[in-house]
Every structure is written in C-alpha cells, then in structure tokens.
Amino acid sequence: MLNWSAVRKLLIAILALVLVAIIVVPGYKTKKQSEIQQVCRSRLEQIAKAQEKCFAQYGRYVSGLTEISGDSLNFTCPLNDSRFILDTPDSTHYKLFCPNKHGWISEKRASWKQE
Length: 115
Ligand SMILES: [Zn+2]
Hints:
Layout: H1 4-58, E1 85-90, E2 93-97, E3 104-106, E4 109-110
Antiparallel strand pairs: 1-2, 2-3, 3-4
Bound molecules: zinc ion.
C-alpha cells in the first residue's frame, strides 16, 4: 500500500526546493556574469597600462598584442577565452576591446568609466 501522506509530504518538499532554485539561480548567474566582466575589464586595464608605458618610452602604441610583453598580462576574455581585439589606426591611437562586449579601452578612456 502506498502511503499517500508521505508521498504528499515528499512532493511538497520537492516543490519547495524547486521554488528556492528558481529564486536563487538567476541571482547567482547575474553575480557570476558581473564577476567575469570585472576580471575582463581589469585585464583590459592591465594591457592599457602596458600601452601607456610603451607610449611613454617609444612615443607610439603597440599595434599587435603579441608585441606587448608583461608577466601577468592576459589577452583573453575570461568568459570564453576569446582573444581581445586591438585596433590601431595609427601609432598614436589605439582601441582595445573585448569580443564579448564587456567594454573597450583606448587612450586613457574606458567605456565603463564614461558618464
Ligand atoms: Zn570580456
């Protein structure tokens, strides 16, 4: 014989868990997304610092990411490890951006620091 009262209790418990998951999971995802974005932007800032250093030293920006050397530099977006894109119309201008639209950075300006 099935114990319907026990089955009902079990169903209520499962339903409660599902409801909690529905509430918690989206918040967790959003938090994770913003963490990834933060890491991505700090990597972009690190590269921008290296660019400024190069400009101060040689009077020009580096036109290829492979030319930038740095111990802790990372040239990929943490979301899916896709490579940042460096756009250099000439040696005194550059724009570095994340292919996943986390932002861009160019001569001392960053997309996430604009009013
Ligand atoms: Zn990114």
